[in-house]
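A quick aside before the break. I want you to see a complete sequence-to-structure record at least once, exactly as it would be stored in a machine-readable document. Don't worry about memorizing anything.
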Amino acid sequence: MGVGGRHSISQWIPVIKEIKLLDIALQGGYTKVTSSVNVNVEPWMYRSDPPEADWDDQFVVQQVAGWTLNLIASQTLSVVTFYEGIGYASSIVDWTYRDIIQSTQ
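That is the input. The structure line, written in tokens, reads:
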């Protein structure tokens, strides 16, 4: 799920407002996604002496969140629009291993 928006700031700056071919805008967005997948890890596949544990119903959860903020300038000439921009973006990815017992508590 995410949200984003763009707003022209040219209308608020008198000098730029007079230049008809130039538009300056701020754009921002945020998104967050969570997904999981069942995995089948058998202890004997990796160790000859596996610890005592319940090896059933394992899954991996991935959570990704990110946001962006940009300053965009555009010039429209007839049927062509040129864009220039500068921005900043950040994201975080978190991987978690869980089993059914841990996720229900």
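Two observations worth writing down. Residues 14-17 form the longest helix (4 residues). Residues 2-103 form one domain. We'll return to this after the break.
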